[in-house]
Amino acid sequence: MALKCIADCCADNQSNTAHPKKHICPSCGIECAEVSTRAIAHHIRQSWEWKKQAQKYFFCENSHCEVVYFGKNDSSILKAQLRTEVSRKENSDEALLCYCFGVTRADFQNSPQVKDFVLEKPSKSFVHAKPETRQDAVA
């Protein structure tokens, strides 16, 4: 079953429609969907050292391909360069399905509430809610 995470958290919603939303993976040749640079920055090790370029980036979900993210110029980010396991690339129960909320494959399979939460489309106010500050938590 292909999962679509809550409100497409990792999708590039600010993308200009003049650019294609799909691109061919330079390693395996499948057509891949566009992803935001923000999503890549959340997953890549030492993201502060990543030399992001002014281009579109894409996610390769082929489980047999070592490339996870790649740029339109075919620059690649491999599985070994990420901090987390990619659910579509790994069979581990600990592989994350929803990175934004830390939901693992095991969480999804074992809890109906988690499954409902991940598959629902929450309101924009939930997704973009102001994060609780440390001071708010203490009060």
How does this model look, in words?
This protein is α+β, with helices and mostly antiparallel strands and 139 residues long. The protein folds into two domains: 19-88, N-terminal domain of TfIIb (Single Sheet), CATH 2.20.25; 91-121, no CATH class. 22% of the residues lie in helices and 17% in strands. It is built from five helices and seven strands; from the N terminus they run ββαβββββαααα. The chain has helices spanning 37-43, 105-110, 112-119, 124-127, 134-138; strands at residues 22-24, 31-35, 57-59, 67-71, 76-78, 96-98, 103-104. A hairpin with a 4-residue loop joins strand 4 and strand 5. The model is unreliable at 1-7 and 123-139 (pLDDT under 50).
Strand content: 15-25%
Read across the widest sheet, the strand sequence of neighbours is 1-2-3-4-5
Helix-strand pattern: EEHEEEEEHHHH
Number of helices: 5
Average pLDDT metric: 75
> What is the assembly state of the chains in this entry?
single chain
What can be said about the biggest beta sheet? 5 strands, antiparallel
Distance between the termini: 43 Å
Give the helix/strand class.
alpha+beta
What is the overall shape?
Answer: globular
Poorly predicted spans:
1-7, 123-139
The CATH architecture term of the largest domain is Single Sheet
Question: Topology of this structure?
Answer:
Blueprint: E1 22-24, E2 31-35, H1 37-43, E3 57-59, E4 67-71, E5 76-78, E6 96-98, E7 103-104, H2 105-110, H3 112-119, H4 124-127, H5 134-138
Antiparallel strand pairs: 1-2, 2-3, 3-4, 4-5, 6-7
